[in-house]
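Example A, followed by Example B.
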Amino acid sequence: MALKLYRRHRKECEGSHAEDTRSGEFEEGRRGWKKCGCLIHASGSLHGAFKRKNTGRTDWREAKAIALEWEKTHSWDGEVAVPPIVPEPSSLPKRTTIERAAKTFLDELREHAAAATHKKYRLLLNRFKAFSEQRGYVMIDQWEPLDVREFRSSWKVSPGTAVRNMAMLKPFFEWCLNNEWVSRNPARLVKNPKGREVRRAEQKLPFTDEELKRIYEACKTYGRESRYVWNGDDLADFISLSIYTGLRISDVALFHIDRMLPTGEILIRTTKAGTHVYTWVPDWLQKRIQERSEKHGPFIFGTHKTETLEVITEGSGGGN
């Protein structure tokens, strides 16, 4: 009678299978099965003696070799010399853990990417690792296209943000593919949705005169408490420079007096061809810029110890 092999799951099962439950080789070959390192046992009768015994192996081929030797000797006793198993040729990539894949990717990214870019990838991969843990995944090659779709569905973000997140997830898996840790890039097989919400580009209308009036009125009441570094006049100047130049918040926060020419023109940007693009601001705003330069230095909204734009713009957005 051939011995029956089964895996008996322990309390610390990496695949989160219930303690003392059993699984067979066929069952574990099904799609979506969570792999683990629990030991394989054998049960049956040898030389009239029924017994259950631990093979001491986690690999099915090795466990079968152990059981075969027991069957040949018709005995449960003694150590069995397991013949060396020649690994079968495989096209599968080298396996690595999700934790190691994420860490090495971020370490390499830090060498050439901006701090803000590295932070975005780090936050996304933290969510990626948490989602993997919920699924019981340990190895990076356990991820499939369906997992990527369900991971995307778990994000509580706008469709546009989801598209940008996918644009970061794809190069991560591409990097894993280049390292031969996965046989394909599962994120490349997931297409972004093309619904109306993604295609829709709502027109951003400028503030009306009435809205601007209320904004400037609110500036008069801002910064009265000592805990604020900037006062209402600072905030009004920041808003005025933004309105008349159309510069981004980060560019206004880092505005240098050298951007303004004596004629009152302000450098907006430089084209790829090297041509400078300027805009003109009224005399009263030119005067305010000069006054701020005399008071705060060449950076009219103050210098910053950090180079992280997120921190700079947060402080320039009216924070304390």
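Example B, a separate protein, is given below in the same form.
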Amino acid sequence: MSFSAFLLRLHLLLLLAFLLFYAAKAALLFLGREPALRKLRARTRLADSLLGLLILGSGGWLLARY
């Protein structure tokens, strides 16, 4: 497997994880579970930042290689 193919799969995996975190937070918000939402946001703050940074980095690399 080439590096670009590996990076594409990694990018898709990171994007899926980011969207799952986002969907979980949106569900808690719409269900009115404010304390649970605050607790989840506190636990995943660093993970959200790292996922966003890795998504941008891998997407930029893939775009530059395209």
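On Example B: The CA atoms of residues 3 and 57 lie 14 Å apart.
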